[in-house]
Design a protein that fits this description.
single chain; alpha+beta; Four Helix Bundle (Hemerythrin (Met), subunit A); Helix Hairpins; Heat Shock Protein 90; 4 domains; 18 strands; about 50% helix
């Protein structure tokens, strides 16, 4: 085929094809792994077949001949499976999964406008062998499948088998009843009667449209400006109430301001939801990954996915994929033991890995839990001492949580040998970097011999955020609330100095302190009543107490960039307060870097 013809002439249609095919392929991996577990699920088989059939039809229309050839062979195998001529087994599933991988490669070439021939002889030979019966086994006795719409219509002599076959070929998307009516093979009443006998309801019309992400970003920016205007309006109403307390018009103004506040909040939530995507988009890749890894490592693992419908911002979705891949791979490679080890330890030979997502306030929490061997704290200490990160004396005084945090250090690994999966000491460093970029928190709880739970807490969106407004000197700063763990009021007597560094004892642990005024070279005021406030903050696995003189409370702020020419270290951007003042938003990830740099190499005083 001419290499450039379909791409150059029909770019818009090709782009739609790429988007639709990517969506179909993302679901196919998960469905195919599920098919291996439930080989008799005819509905699932039909769903997979329809996805592959849709890809074939669109690829054929655009002239992508290699993709059509491969998908056609895979479709033939799936067709035999759904008609009971073949039975699902691991060899057949391997071949279909391999076909999906090659389709992804072909799609990437189309996406990059770099179409080239790929050697398909190996996979086509595998699929041909399956079709001829060389690689599969005939199905044992199988229960009759529930009757489908087409079968009912043929039995009742509403349509002929030839008409049904023609309608099935035309199904893109697969709405058989609509196709039969359109071709005048049956009336709407006949189709509805057949559907009622089948026990199914007619499918609703398509309810979604695709919108360019830049348009959504623009709407989000406008909503951000509305939020700032609302904050300013509320501040003015508050001042007018104090000044003209008894005026009737003030009451009306207050009602109007409250109404605008309600509408602005609802609009903001509505716009945020348009950017939201279910985390299933990320989770869907893991069944296939776990299946392949467990087979390569000789382990038996059951993956449980919970909360796939949980939604979060598109920008967060794009960043969270890589950290989760590293964490799940670690659970499989380091956590879950070999079947004989698990049996010796009194466990089920099948290891359990659970990936879950749920909401917690304005945050989303993602958990990776396994029932493997957990983390050996003594081994981590030994490795940290060996690398010169701490002394043996310091290691003996450290808490379990502090010791586990060493796994996030660049190049740190306790693996006895490097494998294709892990052992190079880069995985957890990538996790930490990505979580830090999102102002997220990560927490690890592990019991040696029992398993581990890794929790990641992320903000739902990074465009408009809840902040804690704090004051030092005459300046007000905004701290991202997602990274604030708690606030504590202390007196100067509570502060202790250890090796020239200020710390406080907080619930049997030592919390390093830093004065916000010192970081930004602001002369702090002496507190009139002798009290100071410590804002306990965390980014990824690190924790530190930020000392300030004033707490102003929580406020919703819109992040405004300072531009490429003004980028002070430790500042994420600016926002406008209700009284019109501009205040700076602290970038806690950068702030923590500044603190670590200033504190030098003494591990005892790096952030815990």
């Amino acid at each position: 085929m001419p290499v450039d013809s379909p791409i150059d002439e029909m770019r818009e249609i090709v782009n739609d094809f790429i988007l639709e095919t990517e969506e179909l392929l993302s679901g196919l991996d998960q469905d195919l792994v599920e098919m291996e577990k439930s080989p008799d699920d005819l509905n699932l088989l039909n769903k997979i077949f329809r996805s592959v059939h849709t890809i074939k039809g669109a690829a054929g229309f655009l002239g992508f001949s290699q993709m059509v050839e491969l998908v056609h062979h895979a479709e033939d195998v799936l067709n035999k499976l759904r008609h009971g001529e073949l039975k699902v087994n691991s060899k057949i599933n391997d071949a279909i999964l391999k076909s999906v991988d090659i389709i992804k490669l072909l799609l990437t070439d189309i996406k990059n406008n770099d179409i080239k021939d790929i050697d398909l002889s190996g996979i086509l030979s595998e699929l041909t062998d399956i079709l001829s019966g060389k690689m599969s086994e005939a199905p044992a006795g199988k229960e009759p499948a529930p009757k489908k719409l087409g079968e009912i219509l043929v039995e009742e002599q509403v349509v002929t088998e030839e008409q049904l076959e023609e309608a099935l070929e035309s199904q893109v998307p697969p709405k058989l009843g609509e196709v039969l009516v359109e071709k005048k093979f049956a009336t709407e009443d006949q189709v509805q009667k057949a559907l009622s006998k089948q026990g199914a309801a007619a499918q609703p019309p398509e309810q979604t449209i695709r919108v360019d992400i830049n348009r959504l970003d623009n709407v989000m920016n406008l909503v951000g400006e509305m939020v700032l205007g609302r904050n300013r309006l509320l501040q003015l109403v508050s001042k007018l109430e104090q000044q003209y307390e008894d005026s009737e018009i003030i009451g009306t103004l207050n009602e109007t301001a409250s109404h605008i506040t309600l509408i602005t909040t609802d609009l903001q939530l509505a716009v945020m939801k348009t950017r939201m995507q279910p985390i299933k988009k990320v989770f869907s890749k893991f069944p296939r990954m776990v299946r392949d890894m467990s087979r390569d490592l000789g382990k038996e693992i059951n993956l449980e996915l919970i909360g796939e419908e949980t939604e979060l911002d598109k920008s967060v979705i794009e960043e969270i994929g890589d950290p989760l891949v590293h964490l799940v791979r670690n659970s499989i490679d380091h956590g879950i033991e070999m079947p004989d080890e698990r049996i010796s330890a009194g466990k089920d030979k099948v290891g359990q890995v659970r990936l879950s997502a749920y909401y917690e306030g304005n945050n989303i929490v993602i958990e990776i839990k396994d029932d493997g061997k957990g983390m050996d704290v003594d081994r981590i200490k030994e490795k940290a001492v060996e690398k010169g990160m701490i002394t043996p004396e310091e290691a003996s005084r450290m808490s379990k949580k502090d010791v586990i945090s060493f796994i996030f250090a660049p190049g740190f690994s306790t693996a006895k040998k490097v494998t294709d999966v892990s052992g190079r000491g880069v995985g957890m460093d990538v996790v930490k970097t990505n979580i830090t970029k999102l102002n997220g928190l990560i927490d690890i709880d592990s019991d040696y011999g029992k398993g581990s739970v890794i929790s990641i807490k992320l903000p739902l969106t990074i465009a408009i955020m809840q902040s804690l407004m704090v004051g030092t000197g005459n300046e007000i700063f905004a701290l991202p609330l997602a990274s604030v763990i708690e606030t504590v009021r202390i007196s100067n007597d509570d502060i202790q100095t250890v090796d020239r560094h200020e710390v406080i004892k907080l619930r049997n642990s030592v919390l390093p302190l830093v004065r916000l005024g010192d970081i930004f070279r602001i002369s702090a005021e002496n507190s009139k009543n002798g009290w100071l406030y410590v804002v306990v903050t965390g980014v990824a696995e690190k924790r530190v107490g930020i000392m300030v003189e004033k707490l102003y409370g929580q406020e919703e702020v819109v992040i405004k960039s300072l531009g490429e020419y003004v980028s002070p270290k430790g500042i994420a951007g600016a926002t406008i307060l209700g009284d019109g003042r501009v205040t700076l938003i602290v970038d806690l990830a950068q702030l923590f870097e500044i603190i670590n740099t200033d504190k030098g190499k003494d591990a005892r005083f790096k952030m815990t």
